[in-house]
TrEMBL record:
Identification of the protein by name: Carbon-nitrogen hydrolase family protein
Residues spanning the membrane: none
Keyword Signal: no
Phylogenetic placement of the source organism: Bacteria, Pseudomonadati, Pseudomonadota, Betaproteobacteria, Burkholderiales
InterPro entries referenced in this protein's UniProt entry, alphabetically: C-N_Hydrolase, C-N_Hydrolase_sf, Nit1/2_C-N_Hydrolase
Domain of life: Bacteria
Pfam entry (one): CN_hydrolase
Amino acid sequence: MKAAALQMVSTPRVGDNLAAAASLIAQAAAQGCELVVLPEFFCLMGRQDSDKLAAREEPGRGPIQSFLAAAAREHRIWLVGGTLPLRASDDVRVRNTSFAFSPQGECVARYDKIHLFWFDDGGERRDEPRSIEPGSEPVAFTLRARDGRDWRIGMSVCYDLRFPELYRRLQADVLLVPSAFTHVTGQAHWEALLRARAIENLAYVLAPAQGGTHENGRRTWGHTLAVDPWGQVIACRQEDGEGLVVADLDAERLTGWRRQLPALEHRVL
């Protein structure tokens, strides 16, 4: 199965971001990709955290969700919409939500980001709990590829990457990590963490990312990449700016690695 992880430099304007995403999705579909994954907050990187409130949607309706459903249906692909702001239980926060859509445009999974990022190095400060309400449940879904093979797809978002117990719970063949890593933490830890999650779980990892300097002044790390279950980076975008990374996910090789090293069957704790 061919899959694509998309890299963006999203703006404070939802319409512009959806147009950019549509172009990248079309490019991935034209290359024969069956699974396409957008980065975290692909639809909006606001000038301030509270900008998410104006763009928040209700579950099952709203222009961003409609866009994702239509794009999946138009291109006959499985499309995972990075994340978008969804209404929370109060009026000052949102859920940071990832939706997966089938080639028929049906929503097949919803994951609300569980682990919320807090960081302060004296120069840059991020405090997601102020504006985001956390989710609580791991989510995976079954993707039936065009060849009839079923893949278990595990969903996660950005900061979740630092919590390996989540990925153990997912028991997935492919782990998705749509992200907007800061430049500082990305430079230090991005690739190492992604490779570790692939190795630990003998799973493919697809990590679409925000990558560049945004209009709000924030700089994201980018380096959208794909890792195989042996921990090897099979594709990576080195440059800032929008683009896509395409990778072939080989089910027979996945089965072979898990047979050669059945570490998942050797767990004790």
